[in-house]
Design brief:
10% of the residues lie in helices and 50% in strands. The protein has a six-stranded antiparallel beta sheet with strand order 1-2-4-5-6-3. It has one helix at 35-45, and strands spanning 12-18, 22-28, 55-65, 73-84, 87-94, 98-106.
């Protein structure tokens, strides 16, 4: 993953699994993550598909925060939902903790 982020905002660390429609990425935070940090980590993890250039998080929807994450290391699962030209919609989940959808605009 080639991300233009630097610590402390670089959360996506390693691709654990990469399929054609889904990926799993190891993420690490400098402290217990908030929901916005998890959403940013999911957006960063979407770069694991490798078919994106410079992208921007433009929307989030259907976010469910089931329970607070108490760990600074998590695995985020990302699934491709929809592509239309420069817009890409994904769903994400952190098992038993949170899930939702987000859209990335790619230059």
């Amino acid at each position: 993953m080639n991300l233009p982020h630097l610590p402390p905002l670089l959360f996506a660390k390693e691709i654990i699994y990469r399929g054609s429609e889904d990926v799993k990425v190891a993420c690490e935070f400098p402290y217990i993550p908030t929901l916005p940090m998890i959403l940013e980590a999911a957006a960063q993890a979407s770069s694991a598909f490798g078919d994106q250039q410079e992208g921007f998080l433009v929307s989030a929807s259907d976010i469910e925060y089931v329970q607070k994450i108490e760990d600074m290391k998590i695995e985020i699962s990302i699934k491709k939902e929809f592509d239309m030209q420069n817009m890409h919609m994904f769903s994400f989940s952190v098992e038993n903790f949170t899930k939702g959808k987000f859209t990335i605009y790619v230059k």
